Amino acid sequence: MLYNRVLVTGANGLLGQALVQRLSRLPEYDVLATARDDGPRFDKGSFGYAPLDVTDASAVHRTFQDFTPNVVVNCAAVSSVGECRNHRERCWNVNAAAVETLANECRKIGARLVQVSTDFVFDGEDGPYDESARPDPVNYYGRSKLAGENAVRASGLGSWAIVRTILLYGTANRLSRSNFVLWVVNSLSRGETIHVVDDQYRTPTYVVDLATGIERLLHFEKDGVFHLSGRELVSVYDLACTVADVCDLDDTLIRPVSSDYFDDAVDRPLRTGFIILKGETELGYSPHSLRDGLAAVRDEMK
Ligand SMILES: NC(=O)C1=CN([C@@H]2O[C@H](COP(=O)(O)OP(=O)(O)OC[C@H]3O[C@@H](n4cnc5c(N)ncnc54)[C@H](OP(=O)(O)O)[C@@H]3O)[C@@H](O)[C@H]2O)C=CC1
Ligand SMILES: Cc1cn([C@H]2C[C@H](O)[C@@H](COP(=O)(O)OP(=O)(O)O[C@H]3O[C@@H](C)C(=O)[C@@H](O)[C@H]3O)O2)c(=O)[nH]c1=O
């Protein structure tokens, strides 16, 4: 059997954990999980682990020389839009500059690079978007992620893919950043009132679906841009109400508000969402329905 030697960065994050667990269950992959911590935050699956800060160019070089991956999936990011607004240099170093470093190291050893990106590269004026839509980010996070995409495109790599996704939800161990669905469940379970925007629209994505989609992309060795998200376009308020319904929580605690309710809000694109036809036809991507994905998360939380 021809093994795919896959190096995953940011492996202790929400997507990184799901992806490493997915790949390490399949015999065709030999996985090296890397993250900033001394060890993995999870233990299911059979994979190697090495500490790696993607902004440390010499550490990246050494890790590539030691493991010699034939494919790298970059899940490392500063994924909080507020943190990107407040700590621009750190955000740029991770989301843009480090991608250039990874792409250069991939080129040297002939490896493929799969870069994970976001709906926030778009302005949100005319979603849902397909892969040919023109990016025009409205916040610093989106600009840094677009710069990361452009570093891949400009790198001269023989083989690369950019996988954009939207509003990820799921469970994982000891996350440094929670996600919207867990936040709604935890807040409502404590009986807390929450204010949720009803003018932002998304196609929320169950992280297990995204991990499966990326695995399919590796398996078929597809290049180019792919939009992998859920199928259903909903307002974030409707998403919160669906979470309450699926988890049997009190939806009267959810108050609809518009985006300008939050005084210090970071600008967020209003209507994103993805058309996922390319992933469906070229990868066999087939995400859970929103209710089924949320039910799976509810069961994982038990
Ligand atoms: N979450 C979402 O809704 C969406 C996410 N995306 C994209 O998906 C990808 C995965 O995001 P997600 O898993 O949700 O985010 P997480 O924040 O859960 O994971 C990102 C990981 O990157 C790690 N990281 C940060 N800086 C470095 C560094 N210098 N070196 C190595 N690792 C680093 C973080 O480490 P630590 O835990 O130590 O902080 C974290 O574990 C990102 O590219 C993100 O932009 C796109 C659309 C939606
Ligand atoms: C905390 C909070 C969030 N929201 C809304 C804002 C937003 O539409 C949604 C999710 O907010 P978050 O701050 O979790 O995430 P946000 O920064 O909007 O989400 C993004 O994550 C990054 C990584 C991406 O790349 C994007 O695809 C996107 O999904 O919830 C409220 O309405 N009320 C609240 O009190």
Description:
The chain is α/β, with parallel strands linked by helices. It has a domain at 5-169 and 204-231 and 274-288: NAD(P)-binding Rossmann-like Domain (Rossmann fold, 3-Layer(aba) Sandwich), CATH 3.40.50.720. 39% of the residues lie in helices and 18% in strands. It is built from ten helices and 13 strands. The protein has helices at 14-24, 57-67, 81-86, 88-109, 140-153, 180-189, 207-220, 236-246, 277-283, 290-301, and strands spanning 4-9, 29-35, 48-51, 71-74, 112-118, 160-165, 168-169, 194-197, 201-202, 205-206, 224-227, 234-235, 254-257. The strands form four sheets. Strands 3-2-1-4-5-6-11 form a seven-stranded parallel β-sheet, sandwiched between helices. Strands 7-10 form a two-stranded parallel sheet. α1 (14-24) crosses α7 and α4 runs parallel beside α5 (140-153). The chain starts with a strand and ends with a helix. The model has no long low-confidence stretch (mean pLDDT 97). Residues 5-301 form the RmlD-like substrate binding domain. Pathway: Carbohydrate biosynthesis; dTDP-L-rhamnose biosynthesis. It is an enzyme of class 1 (oxidoreductase). This is dTDP-4-dehydrorhamnose reductase. Belongs to the dTDP-4-dehydrorhamnose reductase family.
Q: What is the CATH class name of one domain?
A: Alpha Beta
* Ligand inventory: NADPH dihydro-nicotinamide-adenine-dinucleotide phosphate, dtdp-4-keto-L-rhamnose
Kindly provide the radius of gyration, computed on alpha-carbon positions and rounded to a whole number of angstroms: 19 Å
Tell me the CATH topology of one domain. Rossmann fold
Secondary structure category: alpha/beta
- Total helices: the number is 10
Strand/helix succession = EHEEHEHHEHEEHEEEHEEHEHH
**Strand percentage, roughly?**
15-25%
Catalytic activity: dTDP-beta-L-rhamnose + NADP(+) = dTDP-4-dehydro-beta-L-rhamnose + NADPH + H(+)
Family: Belongs to the dTDP-4-dehydrorhamnose reductase family.
GO molecular function: dTDP-4-dehydrorhamnose reductase activity
Pathway: Carbohydrate biosynthesis; dTDP-L-rhamnose biosynthesis
